[in-house]
Amino acid sequence: MTISHSSVPDSGPERLREAWAAFASQEWSKAAALFDALLQDSPAATAAEAAFGLAHVRARMNEHAGVAGVLEPALALARENKEIRLALIRAWTPYGTFGYAINTVKAGLNKATAEHMSQRIALLRTLVSIYEAAGDVAGAISVYYTLISIAPRDAATMTAIGRLWMLGGDNTNAANFFQKALALEPACLPAMDGLADARWIEGQATEVRDILRRRGLASINPEERAAALFKAEIVQPAMTCDANEIDEARARFTAAVAAGPTAPLADPWKLGLGPNFYANYHARPDRALHEAVAAYFLAATPNLGETDLRRRAPAARPRIGMVSAYFCGHTVGYLTRGLILGLDRKRFELVLFRTPGARFDPVTQELAAAAPMINLPPDLPTARRMIAEAGLDVLHFPEVGMDRFAYFLAFARLAPLQTTSWGHPLTTGIPNMDMFLSVDDMEPPNGAAHYSERLVRLRNLSIDVTPPRMEQVTTTRDALGLDPRRPAYVCAQSLYKLHYLFDDTLRLILDRDRDGLLYFVSHSAHADDLFSKRLERSLGKDMTRVRILPRTTPQKFLHLLRAADVLLDVPQWSGGKTSLEGLAMGTPIVHQPGEFMRGRHTLAFLRRLHMAATVVENAEAYAETAARLVHDGAFRHDVRGQIAERSHRLWNDTASVREIETVWSDALAELER
Known about the structure:
By secondary structure, this protein is of the alpha/beta class. 52% of the residues lie in helices and 8% in strands. The strands form 2 sheets. It has a 7-stranded parallel β-sheet with strand order 3-2-1-4-5-6-7. Strands 10-9-8-11-12 form a 5-stranded parallel β-sheet. Helix 4 packs across helix 5. The protein is globular.
């Protein structure tokens, strides 16, 4: 088989979607015919993806003899052509169909002799692409180490390994490889970007600013220079120690935004820009800042806010689109899964759009089987066009503010109604975002003033989630790092969510319980050190009763929550999934409602359970309630009994899905009037 290099206009994307839709519906003969037709008259990239689709159709039809003959030409072209590699990755990802490609490339590697080193390197790079698309970080790293053994002085390979280590959560190894790349090539800009990102995750704001300033000055491209210098000014510390530090960091941020862009930015996502994550944890009013940041990006890149509405013929069912990087085993995926699976297909159509680089795992596979899932390419204009072509009535973002690509997509008007929710619990500040779907029991009375969007206060919890499953294995407190002889007060939130104002509450807890120990979960070596030094100022000699536990597996985390005597919620940023998991484990949570919705998630959960005994108004009552749960047996027994008896009210809440459906339907009807 040869792959076509047609010169005719490419109508491939639409025909490919039709072919993959037949594939997803297991209409093998139809899919085979569609893919085969694309092979005959399409440009190389489209034909390569069609070849991959045809190979998998033949495998499903048990025509295994024809699989290799279709795959090998496509993979051979992919070795030399980045566009074709990207086309194949888009084909591999939606259906988890990686095995055939991996085996074919490995077979080619076995045939490649030492005399054909260039061919071997090309095959290894293709294999890396497959592992990366599959989300197999370990597999990709192992291939890169092979590439290092062949070309040990390649800064690009060192940088790529650093990125993978960072993706796997090992920032120490990531930084080491970025530094190795810079030692080989001091002006390696991607390595500078990687090192800045790794240090940013660790919270090393001063070093990040220095790296980004050097990166900006080293850039001959005006866009890259402007972006790097802007990022240097807006970087925020992950762990803030006092009000002065927050004031200084926010002042630098707001000044850079107010000054406006120094150069047009064709694609802010490709330049590494996006929302500023750590600024959200300062416990300050944020609406004006988010609106100013959105205005900055619209001034720098006006086409971000373009309108592209493709009207369909009148349809019986509104079409809902959802955009996210987190259709996977992530907190946002956990909170959104029930809406995706439970949306009434008799009333609505549903299409899912995954942003570039999103992880593929069993949850992704489950959701892809429940609704068409389109993998967006790493190009904002093309991604916007693909979403617009779906002819949506509603475009919903489960979160806006964590995934940079989704953030920039949210600027455009791609559906008559555009909504977001509390997967990231802050306003977007984006003019084209119409509604923020929140929860009435989470919102303070003046909540509407905190949003640039129209606030919708849902009566239910807005989530249809299932309780976490814990393996039935015996785990001791010793094995979890807890002292079995002393009370364990556990705050399981990420350290950057622990505002410095919470330190006084922690001091009061230790004052009331002279035998108690405070436990936290590590973020990074740098952030842990800053947090410990900050606490030491408040706790003094009682700092000896603080323990920072290493990060652990999801299962061991559940065991930790169950083993705790008390869970401590943070008023400035309340637990979401963590609080749900704690209640599922039957462990009492002390909660002090914060000023903003992001500090009131647990309040809604406890109200759902009609439990007010552990909801407090101030730090003194917080410490008293926490100590009482440890030392007052009758009180502890009563609270734990209520959790055991009522926690089922938190799960499988289909009423939340029905309520969101009604909100969307009513809003669409209002638009038509």
